[in-house]
Structures are given as structure tokens and as C-alpha cells.
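Quick check before the chapter quiz. The format below is the same one you will see on the exam, so make sure you can read both the input and the output lines.
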Amino acid sequence: MGLQFIFLIAGLAAGFGLFLAFLNRVLSYMRRKTLKTVLAGGILLLFLIFFSGVAWWGGIYGRWIILLTYIILLVGEFVHRWRARQLRGAPPVSQSGGAFSLRHPLTTTQLVVSQYHLSLNGSSTPAPNAGASLHGGDKRLRVAHLSDLHLNHHLPQGYYQQVMEQVRRAEADLILFTGDFITELEGIHQLPDLARRLHSRLGMYAIFGNHDHWAGAEQVAETLRQSGIEWIGNGWRRIPQDGWRDILLIGCEEPWSPDAFSPPPTQNGDLILALSHTADHVYRLSQLGATAVFSGHYHAGQFQAPGFGPLFIPSRYGRRFYHGHYRVGNTHLFVSAGIGAAEPPLRIYCPPDVFLVDFYED
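Here is the expected output.
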């Protein structure tokens, strides 16, 4: 009985691991929240029933099924880590805040500000005067990337105000938001006050995330307008620059937006910056010639195990692009852990963050 009970536990663990892989790559990409939740619960139950039956009554064949499942999961993990390592970009040149400690697992409001330098000419040398405010006349541009605010009453307003103050002090030329301003519509009233604390030379632009569409896209869009943030949706905006490259902003809200993504016309020399709530579109946007893609959505897992990383990332690529800087062809991908937290409003060993990306020419 003792050995059979051990196999039962092993079978349930194998079923749960297989379910997480399925949830990452398939269910999490569904458009409708309620249907996704119901299907996820039903499929988890089926996985657990099947593997518990295999472990308890399957005999030697059941044990081979469980062993094969573990082999598949381990091979998948090896391939994931190998592929992610190949695609990793340069680490940030500086980071502030969010010191890691095993003794302090709760990191819900321990904001990290990460700064990156990218040469548009392919140079690997550091950006000149990297700590200074950047201006188009100097052939440099500083982008502040914010994502997944998930404004709600569970996180203190003072925390969000602190985040906005740090972004304001960075003196960004351009501020980009990549969706999920809210979880529920009641949180949107906080946005105008927070946005008034920000300033950027070229403005603030945004797309929606899945929660913005689920909670009420029209109300969110109106609040963005009142807050001085331009919503580009599945569209695009061209920002002319005197004496430097034009900036072409591209928005991609698929699969949650009812509107289809339509690629814009591009010109040689454009600095093409794409906003996509999920990084799953990076290959598509790279083929369009995007210089950089900014994404969020994954929360870097929101709950991480030290030394292993996140268990769940809602992506068709699993944990390949779960957080940080990547290179896909000639395109730089930046995946933020986000600022807020939702369902539940808690982060474990996974601090929130803001990215500052400096583009420059030698």
C-alpha cells in the first residue's frame, strides 16, 4: 500500500506538470476569460483523474506512462532553457531597487528600475553620457516602458505614486504603456492622478491588455484620453524627428481586441517600436522590421521558485520569453514583469519593474 501511494503522488504530480505545460501554451491564449477559467478547471480535473487512475490501477504499464511523462517534461525543460539562453540579449547596464533575499519572499512593491543601452549602428560600446537626460538633437532617445499596472485598492496608492516619481526623474523622451491598466473597472479612476505626475518630450502612448478589454475597453480608452495618454490600439503613429530618425509606433492587441492587426507602411531609417501586450507576437513583428518590441502580460510568473524561476507563463512558447531582454533576429524584445499584481495581488520572489531603454547612434 505504501509503494502504491507513492506512485499515486508521483502520478498526480506528473498530471499537474503536464497540465501546466498545456495551460501555458494553449488555454492561456484564449480570448474569453470565463470560458478559459471553466475549461482550465475541467481539464485539470481530467488530468488528475487520468493520472491517479493510471498510478493506482495501471500496474507496470501505468508506471511506464508516469515515467514517460516525467521524461517529456524534463526534455521540454532542457529545450526551453537552451533556447532561451540562445535568445538572451545583453543584461541591463544598471539596476536599482528590489534587492533579492531568500528571507524576504514577498516582493509585491519592491520596484526594480532596469536601464538598457542599445546602439542603432550595431556598436557594443556604452552610450555616451548614459546617465544624462536624452534628447533627439543628440541622436539619442530614452524610452520608459511601463506595463501591467493592474490598478486596484489592494496595493497602496503611495506605491504607484512612487513608481511614477521614479519614471519622471528618469526624464524619458517617450513613455510607452503595454496594457493591463486595470483588473476590474473600479481601479481606472486612479489613472489620471498618476499620469499627471509624468512628463515626456514626445508624449505617452499605450495599447490595451486582455484585462482592459475584459473589464471595459471604452471606459479605459476615455480615461486614457483624460490622462494625456494616446491609445494606438491595433494602429500606428509616426513621430517625426528633426535631424534624426522618425519614430514609428506600432500597436498589436491580438488576440483580445475585436479589431484585426494591420501592419503600417514603413520607411528606410525608421526607428520602429512595437507595443504588444504579449511577447508571443515577437516573430511576426520582427519580420515587419521592428527595431524593438515592448511587452508585458507574463508578470515574470508573479510567483517564482528561487533557482528555477516561474511555474506558469501564459505564452504559446512556455517560459522562453518570460522576462528581460531578448534578441530575435535584428529585433530587441523587452518583456517587463509589470508594476502591479492581480488575482491575487501578490508577488513572491518576483519584483515589479520598469525598463528604461536608451537608443543611440555613434
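If your answer matched, good. The chain has two domains: 2-86, 93-360.
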